[in-house]
Amino acid sequence: MTDQQIDDLTAADGTPDDAAEEQQIVDDSMIPGRGCAKDAAPDFAHIGTADSAHDLDLARALVKDDTLTYLGKSYGTMLGATYAELFPDRVGRMVLDGVLPASLDLVEVTKGQADAFEVAVRDFARDCLTHSDCPLSGSVDQAVGQLQDFLASLDAKPLPGGDRDLNEPLATYAVLANLYFPGYDYPRLRAALAQAMNSGNPSRMFRILDDRISRGPDGRYLDNSSDAFYAVTCLDRPFTGTVEDVKALALEWQKTAPTFGESLAWGLLPCKDWPATSEPVTQTRAEGSNPILVVSTRKDPATPYQWGELVAKELANARLVTYEGVGHTAYGDGNGCVDGAVDEYLLKGTLPKKGLICQ
Fold first, then answer.
1. What mean pLDDT is reported for the chain?
2. Tell me: the pLDDT tens digits for 15-40?
3. N or C: less crowded end of the chain, CB within 10 Å?
4. CATH topology of domain 49-102+280-358
5. Residue ranges of the domains in the chain?
6. Residue 162 pLDDT > 90
7. Residue 4 CB neighbour total at 10 angstroms
8. Residues taking part in catalysis
9. Cα–Cα distance between 290 and 288 in angstroms, integer?
């Protein structure tokens, strides 16, 4: 995609109000697939997770390791579990933290994230209300309602920001993208919202969004992460529904995820009619592998806790560590219990006790 195309896709209205706006998001959603077919064929059909797992095994062979010692976080957990399914006898000490299951389809993954991010936005509001610079007020319910009203107001009246206007989809994306790591994200998001809501200045909202999507201050994207996200996701989890199915899901998801549900439902469309197919791994048993350590955070907005439970049960030889915390992934985030359990396994091969819960 060109920089302008990524901008257009990011700013596409995920809460369409009429047929014209619906057609616009349908058209915008075709940008990634068309770009891949035009400029990356035939290679883009071979960058799904299963292909990458084969590449990973080549890397293992090149360094002459008999087995693969591996730490995977977030999407890296799916790559690791896929590797384990394809090459169970070559799994060494493997840790999967913040688990993305191969067995869920795109609708199931997106719905799970919509609901989990709804919990996360309430956690943000609860934290925000304890700070003097918070632009929200009242109870948690009232604060979340104020945030939702602000986002909705940008649909009709975006905040001017020089070369870009802060519209509803951009602001919503900025909020969602800064709910991953509370200790770092919450203060930045709070300050950005205060500037936008109190002063009508969107500059900090753009800054915290651009940081997450690798958009430089000159409008150029610094890497191909946006392209790669669609190319990998749509090979692994093609969307087989129709536009009418998406409209129905948007209405349904609004009930449990009023902040993000509708826009995330419309976000399924780029994977509709993807111009390539692959043979993804959709079940990860990894029969015969060494033990695989699974780490899952109770309030992880991007890879919900139940996904960790699911993969730990699906794997033939796994042990689950639960982190009673908030945020995306756990290892390396300062919790001594989690870090100790992972280090002991990666460095010494010592598994933690069954049912370990880290506070």
1. 97
2. 999 999 999 999 999 999 999 999 99
3. C
4. Rossmann fold (3.40.50)
5. 3-39+105-271, 49-102+280-358
6. no
7. 9
8. 74, 300, 328
9. 7
